[in-house]
Amino acid sequence: MKILIIEDEPALMRTMEEFLLQEKYVVEKATNYCTAVEKALMYDYDCMLLDISLPGGNGLKILDEMKREGKTGNVIIVSAKNSLDDKILGLNLGADDYLCKPFHLSELHARIKAVLRRKQTNGKDILTFGNSAVNFSERQLTVNGEPLKLTRKEFDMLSFFVTNKNRLISKEALAEHVWGDNMDLADNFDVVYSQVKNLRKKLKECNSDIVVENVYGIGYKFVP
Fold this sequence. Notes:
Layout: E1 2-6, H1 10-22, E2 26-30, H2 33-42, E3 47-50, E4 53-54, E5 57-58, H3 59-69, E6 75-79, H4 84-92, E7 97-100, H5 105-120, E8 126-129, E9 132-135, E10 140-143, E11 146-148, H6 152-162, E12 169-170, H7 171-179, H8 190-205, E13 212-215, E14 219-222
Parallel strand pairs: 1-2, 1-3, 3-6, 6-7
Antiparallel strand pairs: 4-5, 8-9, 9-10, 10-11, 12-14, 13-14
């Protein structure tokens, strides 16, 4: 799961980033309005944590730009402004939640998970496909009731496939979602091919009903 943190306070940015990395999220960052609006419009994120007061512009304008472009980012506004008008405006512009600073990291995480459940899994923690069940809270796949050991990246790819069923997923989209900015370090997509190959092999060996199809030259598709 990929999260964009839009925050200009270095200490808070560092604290949120370290916590979310520990919770196995892919984290990208923006510390000013220009960088934030560029990333918000150019890339797709499972969730965005959006501060309102940013160098160079107001965070609520980012929501307005996203709305105009038809982009949805599962946005949680994280702001020191406890203003009813800001809350109403932000929610009307497409934000999913509003969290006032200061806050506990556990509450932030709970709200992130709630947004992800509502938007990606229709409010469910577990999605079942035949003999296989994907538990997003526990980050666990079971086949015929038995847990299948997956690496962090393999589970991230599996989550992306099952929450985008029947959709063709390009290798570029998969790389961006699972590796985020770190994918810029790679000169090619060999790492993507290798990770998908390993995941498909594990699913096949345990006779899982989750089958990821290879669409030659384009990408992948999960068809339940």
